[in-house]
Every structure is written in C-alpha cells, then in structure tokens.
Amino acid sequence: MLFSRKNCIVRLDADDKIDNNIKEIRKALSESLKTKSYTDTIKDEFELIDEALVTNEFNLIWNNRLITGGYRAWRKKITNAIWKNEILNSDKLDDLFVYNYKKEFDWITTLEFISNRINFSSRQCGDKDTKDRSYRIKNILKELPTYKTLYKRNTNKIASPKCIRCGKKEEEDWDHVWICDDNEFSIDDIIQESPYKFELELVAQNKDKDIEILRNYLCNFLTILESPSIILRGKSRKWELIRGVFNNNFNNISKIKEEKTVIKELWNFIYDEIKKRIRIPRCDEIKRLEEKEEIKKSDLRLKKQVSEDNQNEILETENITLGKLTGALTDGINIDRKWDTIYRIVYFYVRKLPVIPFTIESTCLAEFSIA
C-alpha cells in the first residue's frame, strides 16, 4: 500500500485486515466531509488571560468616550467648539440666541463676515484687516466705545453716560448711535440709497450679469430687510444687518450660487455704508467735542474689575456647554449647523438664596419674572 506523506511516497506492508480498516476510515471521513463543511469539524478551545488583555494605556479617552484616531483633526474641532462655546455663553450675545427657535441666522456666513474672510484669506492679515475685524467683533457684541459703555467701565474723564452730540438728552448706548438726532443720514435713507450706489460699482466693473441679478432680487431683499425681526423683538431685520448678523431668509431668495453671492455682496455693501455714513462721522464729531473740552486720548484709561464670584459663575456655565459640544464632536456628530441651539445652563439669583440652576434650551426659552 502506498501513502503520501510530506510529498514523499512510502511503501508499507499491511495485511488485509488493516487494509480494510483503513478503507472504512477513509469512507467515514468522506461521508463526514460531504455532510459538514471543513470548518464545522474544527473545535477550538480558548481561555481568557486577564494579564494579556489590551489595556487603555495608549488610547485617548474623553469623558469615558474612546477617541478612535485622527487626534489632530479632533483637537482642531475641539478648538472650534471652544470659541463657539464662548459665543454661545456670552452675555453680550444673549439676545441673539434666546429666541432662536427657528434658526433665523446663518452663523456660517455671519462668522465668515465677522472674521473678514470675505476680503482676506485665513493666511492674510494687515492693518486694514485687523481694524475691520476689531470693529465687527465689537459691533456684534454691542461693545463699541459709546459713552454709556465707557461710563460703566469707570473710564477717566467720562462723567456721564449722556450723548454729547445731541445736547445730552439721552444716554449714548449702542442703539442711540444709529438713531441720534445729530446723524446726518438716517438708517432708512442709507438702505434706500445703497442699492443704487452698489449698482454703479457693478457698472464700473462691467458686471452686467450681476446687475441683472441685483435688479431681479432687490425687491425681495428689501422686503426681508424691512420685515419684523423674530429674534430682536420690537425691531426690524435691518437692525440684524447693522449688528452684522446674516439672516437665513436671504439664503432662501435664490438657490443659485452666483445669485446668492450677489445678494451677500449687497448685504455687505449696506453694512459698510451704514458704518461710513453714521459710525465714522460720529467718531469724528466726538473727537472734535472732546478736544474742545481738552480731553486727550491718553486720559481715557480703562478700569475694569470682575468679582471672583461672577467669574466662577461664568466659567461653570461655559464648562457645561463646552462639555456638550465636545461630547457631540467625539461621537462623530457635526455641530456646524446646530451649535447655536445647544442646551445652556442659566442661573437665577433670588435675593441671598443659594444659586438655583435651570437647564433651558436656547430655542424655547420661556419668559417669566420673579417677584
């Protein structure tokens, strides 16, 4: 009988009995292979050894969530979440988020505009870029140096929050700057005149297609601009433009990319016109009046104090919100279009009672008062 073993043919002497046994075994194996797959015939035994298990020594974990690679990209997203969290929890921007139940604002366009990415790339910077960004950030925060703001900061030489341009009739806050009786132009006049001036610029640049788009959608644009604001109660959407916040309804005028670009350019043009014809003349007039009263720029020294209790309260609120943003990013959720509707923790103080935390969703904040 011949057997093949390790590619070598070996001849064995066997009697008939052994030969019959081998044939029976071979037949049984053949039948077994026909009825079952080869893997079914294999039986493995294994045992878990605790010491040999993989540990978390080289894994990055945040709040019991495993970060599955891409650490650099994850860290960049967390950095973005940090400054979005600061925007979301800023007291200066509360009015933009409290009634934002319909996601009225396009924050992608707004933040792009505030960071001046419409005129400069992220790799460019300069004196003009710095000044534009500084103004837009202060403007959206309503922190432009008005007399009311400077008075609250205990600024030297500022004895009253009253407006010195219009005879000290009213306090000069952010809103008063744009509607002061001393302004040469009103907001409505500028809005009505700006489209024509914008069209003249397009004519000078031979952009005939953009001119046609402007004329086709100007009526819809002005209708949205003059309609009541859902977020800024008691004001029209032109106050959103003055603030530098792009309303999402402008994106619904057209879905064509070229037409949306012209609409945004018109929006930017009106914003700059209001700044040039109201804000800058105001600053020039204030400078003239202060020089008349012998107030120098060096005299305006800021003195700002923040109590430790108030600072701890702000940090606690921010950390809670930041944790939610970070958790969403770690779970692979894109927050670019919904970070402005994240839950926030709001604290209410009643006389000297302990702090009572309430979890309130920014998109459905209820109005109530405490007696």
Which features would summarize this protein structure in a list?
371 residues, disordered N terminus, 12 helices, two-stranded antiparallel ribbon, 3 domains, mainly alpha, 48% helix, 6 strands
Describe the protein in words:
By secondary structure, the chain is mainly α. The protein folds into three domains: 40 residues; 99 residues, no CATH class; 206 residues, no CATH class. The chain has twelve helices and six strands. Strands 1-2 form a two-stranded antiparallel ribbon. A two-stranded antiparallel ribbon has the order 3-4. Strand 3 and strand 4 form a beta hairpin. The longest helix has 36 residues. It starts with a strand and ends in a 10-residue tail after the last strand.
SSE layout and pairings?
Elements: E1 2-5, E2 8-11, H1 16-35, E3 61-62, E4 65-66, H2 71-88, H3 94-97, H4 107-114, H5 127-140, H6 147-152, H7 174-179, H8 187-204, H9 208-226, H10 238-243, H11 257-292, H12 308-330, E5 343-348, E6 356-361
Antiparallel strand pairs: 1-2, 3-4, 5-6
Helix pairs in contact: 2-12, 8-9, 8-11, 9-11
Question: With helices defined by DSSP (H or I, 4 residues minimum), what is the helix count?
Answer: 12
Shape call? elongated
Question: Biggest sheet: strands, sense, closure?
Answer: 2 strands, antiparallel
Low-confidence stretches: 1-7, 313-318, 346-371
Strand percentage: 5-15%
- Return Rg in Å: 35 Å
